[in-house]
């Protein structure tokens, strides 16, 4: 999957020949400084902002770049701001604010930045863009892992996994009732997607194996007709999505337009048997309103991999409910996916340093 995403040249880099590729790129770029760089083997100074960035990404960078790495966990802002001074590139490994303070600390020589994430709501994109610094991120490669987890959340919430575990823990195993712990069927259901990009489509593809009836989706633009036919998908307005869907999956990025759209008004338009799944961003949901909707059984259940805030307090009232499954934002947390994210982020940085288009540009 990764080689298909990044193309032949990047696949060559992943195979371990990053130095030769970068050297050839530097050579093609010409110039006295580039010639000197080839002889020293250390072309640029790059900051890695997290101590746990997978080795695959580090190995790509270290052959031709002098690496500096933030070691604190959680990230100490003062350490980050001190170590970023004078660097040429940054692999932004965490979700700390990437803003004017950081860019000012780095200095005007900064040439290339890549996050190691799909969402970049923690980045002041206009500020980075204003300074004409290439910015990369790592979407697509995490689609598989996030889609797998979304299906798991959908099943767990719809079939009352969390509540069932609590029944066991409190010695309330009441299986002598015929109608005990009944959940929602996926079979013949209508699944609605708020946001239907790569992750949403990957989820829909997996759910087709559960014999769902139809996919509805709400987006600004219609997806290709071939995708609609393959996934039995239909574009509808937001109100129709809410009213007709048995399961509603939030797979949208956080923007000014999407923030807080799932609120009391939206929940009141959903079926009382509906299950909400959020693998997008926590702030797309008004969490106080969600709590009330779940507590009053306005909707059946929710499965959340993202919350507002993150991390969620252990004392948050949402966690007192039986009909919500909450995970600590682990959608892309598989060893393979993290390694691929690091690889793409590193290659984004390398390409940005030498003025070539990034594999996965943010703009």
TrEMBL record:
<keyword id="KW-0670">Pyruvate</keyword>
<dbReference type="InterPro" id="IPR029753">
    <property type="entry name" value="D-isomer_DH_CS"/>
</dbReference>
<feature type="domain" description="D-isomer specific 2-hydroxyacid dehydrogenase catalytic">
    <location>
        <begin position="46"/>
        <end position="360"/>
    </location>
</feature>
<protein>
    <recommendedName>
        <fullName>Glyoxylate reductase/hydroxypyruvate reductase</fullName>
    </recommendedName>
</protein>
<dbReference type="GO" id="GO:0005829">
    <property type="term" value="C:cytosol"/>
</dbReference>
<dbReference type="GO" id="GO:0008465">
    <property type="term" value="F:hydroxypyruvate reductase (NADH) activity"/>
</dbReference>
<keyword id="KW-0560">Oxidoreductase</keyword>
<dbReference type="InterPro" id="IPR050223">
    <property type="entry name" value="D-isomer_2-hydroxyacid_DH"/>
</dbReference>
<dbReference type="GO" id="GO:0051287">
    <property type="term" value="F:NAD binding"/>
</dbReference>
<dbReference type="Pfam" id="PF02826">
    <property type="entry name" value="2-Hacid_dh_C"/>
</dbReference>
<comment type="similarity">
    <text>Belongs to the D-isomer specific 2-hydroxyacid dehydrogenase family.</text>
</comment>
<dbReference type="Pfam" id="PF00389">
    <property type="entry name" value="2-Hacid_dh"/>
</dbReference>
<dbReference type="InterPro" id="IPR006139">
    <property type="entry name" value="D-isomer_2_OHA_DH_cat_dom"/>
</dbReference>
<feature type="domain" description="D-isomer specific 2-hydroxyacid dehydrogenase NAD-binding">
    <location>
        <begin position="151"/>
        <end position="331"/>
    </location>
</feature>
<dbReference type="GO" id="GO:0030267">
    <property type="term" value="F:glyoxylate reductase (NADPH) activity"/>
</dbReference>
<dbReference type="InterPro" id="IPR036291">
    <property type="entry name" value="NAD(P)-bd_dom_sf"/>
</dbReference>
<dbReference type="InterPro" id="IPR006140">
    <property type="entry name" value="D-isomer_DH_NAD-bd"/>
</dbReference>
